[in-house]
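Researcher: Good morning. I'm working through a list of sequences from a screen, and I'd like to move beyond sequence-only analysis. For each chain I'm collecting a predicted structure so we can compare shapes side by side. This is the next one on the list. No need for commentary yet; just the structure.
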Amino acid sequence: MLIRDYLNEDEEKKMVNYKYKGADYSILYKYVLSPMAEWVLNTFIPLSLAPNVITMISFACTVIPHIIIGFYVNWGVTGYVPAWLCIITGVLKSLYSTLDNCDGKQARRTKSSSPLGTLFDHGCDAMNVTITYISVATVLQFDASATAIIGYLVGIAPFCTALWEQFFLDGLYLPIINGASEGSYLVVFLFIFSGIKGVSFWKEESLIPSVRNNQIILFGCVLLAILSVSSNFQNVYKKLKKDFNKTYIYLAPAALIIVTYGLLLLQDEELLKHYRLMTYMIGLNVTKYTVSSGLTLKLTRTIAAFTIGSHHST
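Model: Good morning. Structure tokens for this chain:
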């Protein structure tokens, strides 16, 4: 669907003039990840390389090992994943995180920031959440189960609420602990640790009787997700206060998609057999919402973005 099908001329001008705002208050980002990205940028990346190319290369670092893992487990979410593949996936995930920090720095360095770059970067990030989660669920041996469903909800919810906050705060301001920094390197650790210990470790009973090691990890991720989502809601409430109740309409479509996904898989065993396919489908729908709708709304400051598929005119 072409942009002219749902944005008028005035809204297109607003999109062209949009300037991205944001900050990552993570200590890990400030003292480790940002300096590392600056070093990679200044050492290996020429000025002639477009920021969107860096974004695409970083995304490939997630997609390529994901496809290889899929072949090993016959496109399910459980089975043997060799140690070398776990370690390579962890290394490439670390490279993804670094390059994901480099693309924005390159755009500012070359003065080539654009609304298209914002849409493309967040679109890749949205798909990365789903693709990375399926790879993690496979390595952690979640199986096609309620554990895997909860894990995906925990992964995608903070991403949606972060973009929801971005709209109302006129920028993306990540808290001191967030998924983009600490979350990414938790994933890196899990992949590399799985390569060292073997994926079967995650199905073993933990120090807590009748609780598997992968369930301990899931519990920790749930806590981190609650902290992240709570921070998003708190920040929006601080700014809007009396008008806070009006913000839910912008979050409702993504919430409906995610909740429907969970309910369908929990209640239908046949659908659960196709867990990976269902998760791809929901992930693409969330991406379409957050990028095509939510971010376009942000870039143009108009409700036109929520009329995708209909011709918009003034």
